[in-house]
Amino acid sequence: MLELFAESLFPWIAIAILLNTTCVGLYFWKKKAILLVAGAVLFFGAIGVGWKVTTSVVTDREVIIQTLHDGAKAVEGGDIDQIRSFIVLESQGPLDAVERHIANAEVSLVEVRDIEIEINDLMSPPEAHAEFRVFVEMVGTGEVTGANYRLNFPFSLELRKEGERWLVFECSEVDMQEAIKTMRPVME
């Protein structure tokens, strides 16, 4: 509930309108002009506090989203060491699969979209489940040499908070047959 106030200005606008409306209502009842001034001060004060809170407080959800985007940039750049810095997998298999796919294609773009995150603060340390779509543009260098194509597929991760960072400890398997069905040539 508190994240709502840290991530969006809308609750602060609602509070500002409520405070201003209360002061205007009191003005009509008491006929004191100072209430109109108080309403304006409270309105802009609530908006100012809301803006400050939303721009200065970084929530776990925002950190996870940034982690996903940073991971996508690392895959895009083919930086295996950077990719490893986001992962604490018990099994080496998924990381080996990522390395194999990076070796078989020259990736020009990786984006994560449609991100949905559920955070479980009751766990110690806290854990999160993230579901999103991955969009990839690449030029094949392995089996599909020279082909410039785009594909997208659903993906999910399980993350665990370690210190101030969220690290991946489990990931979904990519159904490559489904991903290949989305493959489209990139028009230049």
Ordered list of secondary-structure elements with their pairings:
Blueprint: H1 2-7, H2 10-30, H3 34-56, H4 60-77, H5 80-84, H6 93-103, E1 105-120, E2 127-140, E3 148-162, E4 165-171, H7 176-181, E5 184-185
Antiparallel strand pairs: 1-2, 2-3, 3-4, 3-5
Which structural class fits the helix and strand makeup? alpha+beta
The number of strands is: 5
Report the principal-axis shape: elongated
The main pleated sheet reads as:
5 strands, antiparallel
Helix content estimate: 40-55%
Order of helices and strands: HHHHHHEEEEHE
Q: What percent strand?
A: 25-35%
Classify the fold: give the CATH topology of the largest domain: Nuclear Transport Factor 2, Chain: A
Distance between the terminal alpha carbons, to the nearest Å? 46 Å
Structure description:
- By secondary structure, this protein is an alpha+beta fold.
- It folds into two domains: 2-56; 60-185, Nuclear Transport Factor 2, Chain: A.
- 48% of the residues lie in helices and 29% in strands.
- The chain has seven helices and five strands, in the order H-H-H-H-H-H-E-E-E-E-H-E.
- It has helices at residues 2-7, 10-30, 34-56, 60-77, 80-84, 93-103, 176-181, and strands at residues 105-120, 127-140, 148-162, 165-171, 184-185.
- Strands 1, 2, 3, 4 and 5 form a five-stranded antiparallel beta sheet that branches.
- A hairpin with a 6-residue loop joins strand 1 (105-120) and strand 2 (127-140).
- Helix 2 (10-30) packs antiparallel against helix 3 (34-56).
- The radius of gyration is 24 Å and the shape is elongated.
- The relative contact order is 0.11.
